[in-house]
Design a protein that fits this description.
Chains A, B: Belongs to the polyphosphate kinase 2 (PPK2) family. Class I subfamily. Chains A, B: This is Polyphosphate kinase 2 family protein. 2 copies of one chain form a homodimer. Chain A is of the alpha/beta class. Helix content of chain A is about 45%, strand content about 10%. Chain A has 11 helices and 5 strands; from the N terminus they run H-H-E-H-E-H-E-H-H-E-H-H-H-E-H-H. Chain A is globular, with a radius of gyration of 22 Å.
Chain lengths: ~280, ~280
Amino acid sequence: MNYAKKLVVEPGAKVRLARFDPAYHGKHGNEEEAGRALEEMKNKIGALQRKMYGDNRHSLLMVLQGLDAAGKDGVCWHVVGAMDPQGCRVHGFKVPTGEEAAHDFLWRIHPHAPAKGEVAVFNRSHYEDVLVTRVHKLVGRKVWERRYDMINQWERLLHEENGTTILKFCLVVSRQEQLRRFAERLDDPNRQWKISESDYTERAFFDDYLEAFDEALERTSTAHAPWFTIPCDHKWYRNLAVAGIVLEAMEAMHLEYPKPSVDLGEIRRKYHAAEQAEKKGSV
Amino acid sequence: MNYAKKLVVEPGAKVRLARFDPAYHGKHGNEEEAGRALEEMKNKIGALQRKMYGDNRHSLLMVLQGLDAAGKDGVCWHVVGAMDPQGCRVHGFKVPTGEEAAHDFLWRIHPHAPAKGEVAVFNRSHYEDVLVTRVHKLVGRKVWERRYDMINQWERLLHEENGTTILKFCLVVSRQEQLRRFAERLDDPNRQWKISESDYTERAFFDDYLEAFDEALERTSTAHAPWFTIPCDHKWYRNLAVAGIVLEAMEAMHLEYPKPSVDLGEIRRKYHAAEQAEKKGSV
């Protein structure tokens, strides 16, 4: 199964999320089988990410955006959790602080771009500035319109200057499933604290968000930083799809452990000298 | 098994790592049994860390120091890897950059202290400034001597001002086992790149490091930021011990999910209104 090919937004393609099927789940027989497939992929992702850390030439940026309750946090736990925390950072972007808002919209984002060898995961991102700001008319069309190019240029910088592979995930949940998940939270004492008024007030803007996503995906899905639309009504398929796309991208990096930086023959002599010395008890 | 009680450096206690047994492995029957125990602990750690993130009152700082090849990286992968990457950050401190060296030794450390709800892991730390700098005489006794109090004061700040639990792990490996691990790297093409000249040149300072650790542990193991000496000749015991201490500390936090910030009755009405509207197909 090639998840990337199936779910990518081809550069220049039209996007109509209103016609997208968030309940799609491919051909997996059942959730149990999917669970085993996910575990296998996670093991491979963990191994490759550690190799990437050693290789130290590539970096990976995962951008998580999507509708409320589609599962940005779930992807962090169930997919990103496969990685070695050394070399992998999740950064959540909230409503900008006063200082952040006093700068251009990429100013607070840039410091969190991944270093060579590292993985960075953005839970929300610079895309908030063409999504929530548009839906709630916090800035005018002129402002958010010019941001698409700014975003493309900035992402190209990361890609060309630092070898960053950029994967952007748009997590799509249906209106019905979103409501069902809100109801679940209402009945679960361990999750009631997560409920906010905005869960419901934002639902009034569901279609506006779809439209804002449509245009953002159309204008910023590029060869160097593609968007993927992820059907999220089935959490297990969502996890499989994101893991599959990450795994395929890592495999395409052709990662290698670096060559030794030392003369191994010389090191072997040092090793034997140390061994001899120790046997004699002279150290 | 209470790992913390067994391995803690009691405040004020004398430390003589030269007499410490790095091959200690408690009473576990075999590695397989220990592996199962570790998996169980990791599941609990993952669940509690996610609860801590929700609870948002406590934070945890794990400091990893130790002898070369004792397993700082291994602890990141095998123990910290149990946590949700959202809310957990590993930061590795290397040789200070020019800008870092132009500041006091805590300047580059402080920004990485954990926020409320979060876990921060230091792979090496501010302790390098009373260890490597002392062993290699990069600063004089007067300078590193006064740093113990500065460290204690700074750690107290994190603890008292931000509710940070600080756990400091000194990973101890025997001279023989360290050499054996270097030899393993020599024979493993995937790990040869990790070999450096300093692996061998630093071995000449093995006893000096033990002495530097002795004094650092004596002077900075406090009630608010205790040190634990971890026997690391058996990797499985090392992982169990660190996981056990982390788990015990998290359990002692008595974590709770926050109370809902909204009126649940009101939210239930909103939910039913949304459900009705959807049934009618009016949205």
